[in-house]
């Protein structure tokens, strides 16, 4: 497979070129087929590569060409596909193909159909580049590329100013994190004289005076921006401005997990910086709980899922911070399935509702769109962590590692899991149970989505149900095949950290506590929104103070606006009005005015009178004569 690996990213890039150039000439059927089929072929190659790695037990490194040499810096354009990136390739191309297929139906009536598929293909290309690169520079190129594509996709309907603003917000906030990532790469090169993974990780264990804490903190800043953690998380919910397939692509398996992948790839550096690991765990835990609290009261179905994504990413960072690298990556895998399913399911609901996203205007849909209802229910059970669905196994592994590291982390994690179960089933109950609360026209319009939209839902629902079985822990009679498969990638870190195994009774007790908590939250949501048929109120004055705080996202955007934007606007106003206009412009304009006035005065010497010119010549000759005879000394 080594000689075909380069085709995996090239195929989506070819789709971008073909669909981009032919967006106004090719038919929508041809565009959809090209965009989807090329990603499907890339998925086939990814699967073949995965099985080769599984059979041989070692990764594949392919050097395409030597890129550049500057002093000690030698950079090759090469790919590294090992156990970690091999799984990521299948997630990106597999889930990406399903989203492409779904988009054929969802975007069929959109005038920018060709442009949309070109952007999707370009996004997949850059994401593949990010995970396949064998050094930090190629990763950074893919990192910036997905940032660019997210800007294009979030603001796809750019004629709406709020959508364009959301795209700019995502782009700018990501640049803050990207600066930290770039500085981290510079420091890695300064410390290890290389930015290639293999060389950096080998030298890391032998360089005892390396600034591991500073390096990893800078890398973590990049991860915070890309994976939407506190304080750089507010761009992600606003990214809902993009079409629903974009939300699924960005929020599920690809862009937002780039930060998780980067830390997992750099695991040895983080393991050698325990202080940074603690920071990662705390930030992840706070983000998970904070986003879950916001999701409790949201009424926009896509906003609920957006804050859910922020919360689940917090869980992944918690896993990374407590050293459960496999657990965190396991949650990346399961989250890719059930969150893509939930977003695409939400898109199917919105499609049936004629564009309506407010859950207060839904209700009673389970009999109208049965496939969407059943598949979304599976995804909801999975994300709530209820066995035997996938989210239970991955979330339990993170919580168990958190308990072994610090029981307080576990307690907060379980409370957050309860909140997750509550707000997800709240979403389901408000959307699918009870009486229909929309308009008569919307009720008349209700219908199931076409096959090219429901087939991806069914496939993702099956994966959400069974994917957890690749990581069944020993206490439940499993062998955790994923842990064994990823062992070569995380083995150096495991040797440094050592094993922190829990007793079987403790682990079973922890599982039971999290499951019971999720079931209690589920039942409470049922009583509140189904049995008592409560519907969130629209009037702010009727809500409690805490509910208002949650509904308004704890006014984080307003706080940022007050503390950051307004002072910067005032500072820029000062520089513009005082420094620029009165200072710099004033000096330049005064010089210009002085030159003009002086030239006006000197112009008067040019009278056109020949006698005056002869007189001035005589004066000049006399002056030269006086100067040459040195009659006067200065």
TrEMBL record:
Transmembrane stretches, start-end: 6-22, 29-53, 84-104, 116-134, 140-159, 171-192, 212-236, 248-273, 279-297, 304-322, 328-350, 371-389, 409-432, 453-476, 508-527, 610-629
Entry keyword annotation includes Transmembrane helix: yes
PANTHER family on file: NADH-UBIQUINONE OXIDOREDUCTASE CHAIN 5 (PTHR42829:SF2)
Domain NADH:quinone oxidoreductase/Mrp antiporter transmembrane: 135-420
Keyword Ion transport: no
Keyword annotations: Membrane, Transmembrane, Transmembrane helix
NADH-Ubiquinone oxidoreductase (complex I) chain 5 N-terminal domain ranges (all copies): 67-117
Main location: membrane
UniProt membrane topology term: Multi-pass membrane protein
Protein name according to UniProt: NADH-quinone oxidoreductase subunit L
Domain of life: Bacteria
Cell compartment(s), UniProt: Endomembrane system; Membrane
InterPro entries (UniProt xref): NADHpl_OxRdtase_5_subgr (IPR018393), ND/Mrp_TM (IPR001750), NU5C-like (IPR003945), Proton_antipo_N (IPR001516)
Gene3D superfamilies listed in its UniProt record: 1.20.5.2700
């Amino acid at each position: 497979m080594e000689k075909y690996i380069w085709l995996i990213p090239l195929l989506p890039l070819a789709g971008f070129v073909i669909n981009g150039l032919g967006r106004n000439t090719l038919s929508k059927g041809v565009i959809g087929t090209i965009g989807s089929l090329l990603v499907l072929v890339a998925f086939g190659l990814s699967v073949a590569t995965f099985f080769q790695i599984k059979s041989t037990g070692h990764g594949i490194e392919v050097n395409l060409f030597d890129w550049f040499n500057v002093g000690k810096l030698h950079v090759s354009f090469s790919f590294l596909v090992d156990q970690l990136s091999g799984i990521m390739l299948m997630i990106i191309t597999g889930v990406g193909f399903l989203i492409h297929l779904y988009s054929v139906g969802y975007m069929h009536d959109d005038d920018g159909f060709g442009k949309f598929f070109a952007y999707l293909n370009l996004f997949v290309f850059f994401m593949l580049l990010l995970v396949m690169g064998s050094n930090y520079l190629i990763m950074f190129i893919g990192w910036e590329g997905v940032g660019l594509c997210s800007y294009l996709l979030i603001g796809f309907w750019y004629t709406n100013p709020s959508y364009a603003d959301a795209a700019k917000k995502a782009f700018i906030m990501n640049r803050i994190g990207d600066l930290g990532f770039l500085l981290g790469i510079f420091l890695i090169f300064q410390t290890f004289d290389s930015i290639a993974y293999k060389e950096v990780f080998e030298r890391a264990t032998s360089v005892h005076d390396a600034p591991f804490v500073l390096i990893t903190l800078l890398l973590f800043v990049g991860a915070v921006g890309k994976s939407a953690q506190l304080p750089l998380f507010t761009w992600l919910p606003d990214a809902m401005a993009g079409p629903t397939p974009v939300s699924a692509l960005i929020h599920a398996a690809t862009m937002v997990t780039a930060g998780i992948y980067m830390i997992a790839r750099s695991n040895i550096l983080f393991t050698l910086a325990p202080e940074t690991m603690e920071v990662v765990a705390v930030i992840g835990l706070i983000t998970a709980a904070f986003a879950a609290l916001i999701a409790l009261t949201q009424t926009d179905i896509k906003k609920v899922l957006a804050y859910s994504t922020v919360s689940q990413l917090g869980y992944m960072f918690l896993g990374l911070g407590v050293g459960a690298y496999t657990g965190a990556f396991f949650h990346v895998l399961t989250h890719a399935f059930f969150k893509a399913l939930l977003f695409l399911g939400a898109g199917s609901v919105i499609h049936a509702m004629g564009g309506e996203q407010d859950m207060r205007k839904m209700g009673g849909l389970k009999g109208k769109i049965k496939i969407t209802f059943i598949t979304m229910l599976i995804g909801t059970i999975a994300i709530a962590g209820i066995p035997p669905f996938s989210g239970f196994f991955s979330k339990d592994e993170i919580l168990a590692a958190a308990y072994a590291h610090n029981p307080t982390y576990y307690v907060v994690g379980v409370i957050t899991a309860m909140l997750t179960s509550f707000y997800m089933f709240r979403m389901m109950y408000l959307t699918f149970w009870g009486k229909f609360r929309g308009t008569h026209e919307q009720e008349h319009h209700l219908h199931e989505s076409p096959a090219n939209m429901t087939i991806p839902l069914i496939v993702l629902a099956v994966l959400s149900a069974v994917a957890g079985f690749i990581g069944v822990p020993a206490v439940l009679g499993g062998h955790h095949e994923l842990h064994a498969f990823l062992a070569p990638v995380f083995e150096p870190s495991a040797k440094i950290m050592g094993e922190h195994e829990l007793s079987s009774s403790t682990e079973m007790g922890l599982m039971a506590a999290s499951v019971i908590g999720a079931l209690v939250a589920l039942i409470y949501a049922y009583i509140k929104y189904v049995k008592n048929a409560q519907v969130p109120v629209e009037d702010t004055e009727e809500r409690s103070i805490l509910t208002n705080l949650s509904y308004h996202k704890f006014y984080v955007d307003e706080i940022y606006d007050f503390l950051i934007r307004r002072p910067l606007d005032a500072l820029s106003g000062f520089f513009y009005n005082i420094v620029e206009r009165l200072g710099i412009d004033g000096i330049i304009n005064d010089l210009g005015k002085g030159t003009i006035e002086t030239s006006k005065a000197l112009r008067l010497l040019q009278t056109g009178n020949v006698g005056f010119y002869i007189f001035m010549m005589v004066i000049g000759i006399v002056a030269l004569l006086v100067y040459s005879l040195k009659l006067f000394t200065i």
